Amino acid sequence: GAGVSQSPSNKVTEKGKDVELRCDPISGHTALYWYRQSLGQGLEFLIYFQGNSAPDKSGLPSDRFSAERTGGSVSTLTIQRTQQEDSAVYLCASSFGAEAFFGQGTRLTVV
Amino acid sequence: GESVGLHLPTLSVQEGDNSIINCAYSNSASDYFIWYKQESGKGPQFIIDIRSNMDKRQGQRVTVLLNKTVKHLSLQIAATQPGDSAVYFCAENKGGADGLTFGKGTHLIIQP
User: Fold this and answer.
1) Rounded to whole angstroms, how far apart are CA atoms A78 and A103?
2) Model confidence at A40, in pLDDT bands (50, 70, 90)?
3) Which of A27, B38, B68, B78 has its CA 20 to 30 A from that of B49?
4) CA of A39 to nearest chain B CA: how many angstroms apart?
5) Hey, of A30, A41, A44, A104, which one would you mutate to test binding to chain B, going by the most B CBs within 10 A of its CB?
6) Which residues are CB-contacts of A29 (< 8 A; sequence separation ≥ 6)?
7) What distance in Å separates the CA atoms of residue B75 and residue B57, rounded to the nearest whole number?
């Protein structure tokens, strides 16, 4: 596709369930970022991939959060045993070079 | 010290006035800087960029200023319009494997 695609666009889940968020970056983009954004707040960095490796995982809030990227393309962010404080918009961005292009995000609501 | 929260600072301006949004960056080795605009319910969108060998760059109604001495970046929006209401983020590229680092953002509110 022409841009970064994220799915699902909205996800409502029960507390304690696992969720998987998907990001399809722009074809050829080697760098991929995950951010979290709570309502009315700034971007919280989660993880950065260069190719399939993650040189910076420093933003993952807890061991319930994990991410992987395969084939230098699609990435999945998995949250296990979701908590209400995990409710937020999860944004993915990709880049080749310096400028990053963002997806529209996945709005996660934990009830 | 550095803020640990992610609550956004807010800048409120009158429609038609000029807006100046400021950002401090952390790494003197950063060689590329970008401003993003995020409207409600959307992902951040690129506005304008500047390389470290420049101190000013102009776009359409926007100007970015870079002061490397004090590691400060600003975005100036001329004749602010209601459509400029958004959250504005600066980002620095440190090069290598470090990728992009985003600032916390500023919420620009336009008063009629």
Assistant:
1) 17
2) confident
3) A27
4) 9
5) A41
6) A94, A95, A96, A101
7) 10
